[in-house]
Write a structure and sequence with these properties.
alpha/beta, single chain, Rossmann fold, 2 domains, globular, Transcription Regulator spoIIAA, 13 helices, three-stranded parallel β-sheet, 11 strands
Length: 375
């Protein structure tokens, strides 16, 4: 599936569950309506990770394009390499796995991916010898589906940030060279800022990355394995302009913790955050949203600098935006468990204060019209 969820990012969570109380087609229309495409099947918006891979290949001189899965058949005569990214191939990630456990039925994201891989278009691509390369946040799930890996003729799975390796992998695929079955990209192989390209087409709901990695070291999160990099402000503005030129009027600032942009370790700093939001507000006529923030950063930023209030003043200064939504992670209410699995989640406060940090952060968000989706 490829969708912008009616322009409402959080509706995408419905696509991680099974159809409940209605036919699957209606559930899918509500959660993931079809994307608008051009004559070749190129969507007007596409997942941000795919946009990065597309940009890297175009910059390297390849004829590469993102194609909506429903239009793959139009390119069977010219396709040489089929690269597929997915947030949750087999519904093993949250919240798909929770839905599955609670109701005992396969989530629609797993069902739709299986239908795609067994579609006439993909079968014909395999028959013609097209190399199939998998990647994205759910790449790890293929290690638990070795049977389908073989059955569906997957040549290579790339697990991690792909910018440094994707050009070489595609070159090998086009030349008929041997491809490694599994490529894991660890912290020492992660791309530098210079290796991260500017996207060429609009991203879903205007999502733009402002940093990669996270310094908190939670044991359940792979993001903390990636080195911390702050995307330069000019790079961010270029990607926002790409979205604006395509007709997307809103932006989602993406990071594991937006408030750590330009931070001093885990302590938010006012200057880079205020500068970022001022520049974004000048460009964006519609809404500004945050993908994720940490509760400790919310508390520290407001208690020490009144920074949450200042940022919300900037965000709402266009006169039409009154609030923002953001995802936050509570993870546990137990200080004992917090010390074991996420000792730096509460930093710069000690893990013993985690419940108080959570409550204080929620109070601050409530007072500033920030609506959290808490996990």
């Amino acid at each position: 599936m490829m969708s912008n969820h009616h322009g409402k990012e959080f509706l995408g969570f419905m696509a991680t569950g099974p159809a409940i109380g209605m036919p699957e087609w209606l559930w899918m229309w509500l959660a993931a309506p079809k994307m608008r495409v051009d004559r070749e099947g190129r969507p007007w918006e596409a997942p941000y990770g795919l946009r990065k891979v597309e940009a890297k290949l175009i910059d390297a001189g390849f004829k590469a394009a993102i194609i909506d899965p429903d239009y793959l058949h139009k390119h069977l005569s010219t396709m040489k390499v089929l690269m597929i990214g997915h947030h949750d191939f087999f519904a093993y990630g949250p919240p798909s796995s929770e839905w599955w456990m609670m109701v005992g039925r396969e989530p629609v994201n797993r069902v739709s991916f299986r239908k795609f891989m067994e579609s006439p278009a993909v079968k014909e691509a395999r028959r013609k010898g097209v190399k199939i390369i998998m990647g994205g946040p759910a790449a790890w799930q293929w290690l638990w589906e070795l049977g389908l890996w073989k059955k569906w003729g997957v040549s290579t799975v790339i697990d991690g940030e792909a910018e440094r390796v994707i050009v070489e992998v595609v070159e090998k695929a086009l030349n008929g060279d041997h491809l490694p079955e599994y490529i894991y990209i660890g912290p020492y192989d992660a791309p530098s800022l210079k290796e991260i390209p500017v996207i060429k087409g609009a991203s879903v709901n205007g999502l733009v990355e402002i940093m990669r990695g996270c310094p908190r070291g939670c044991k359940f999160c792979s993001v903390t394995l990636r080195p911390l990099r702050y995307i330069p402000l000019e790079h961010i503005k270029k990607e926002i302009r790409v979205n604006l030129e395509a007709g997307e009027e809103n932006v989602i600032l993406h990071s594991e913790d937006v408030l750590l942009y330009g931070a001093d370790g885990v302590k938010p700093k006012p200057e880079p955050l205020i500068k970022l939001h001022e520049e974004v507000r000048k460009l964006v006529p519609g809404s500004i949203a945050w993908a994720h923030v940490s509760l400790a950063a919310v508390k520290y930023a407001e208690d020490n600098y009144g920074l949450i209030s200042k940022l919300m003043d900037i965000i709402t200064s266009n006169g039409s935006q009154k609030y923002i939504g953001v995802e936050v992670g509570i993870e546990t209410g137990s200080p004992r468990l917090a010390k074991i699995i996420m000792p730096a989640k509460s930093a710069p406060y000690p893990p013993e204060q985690w419940p108080d940090v959570v409550e204080d952060a929620f109070r601050i968000m409530h007072d500033n019209y920030i609506i959290p989706a808490a996990t």
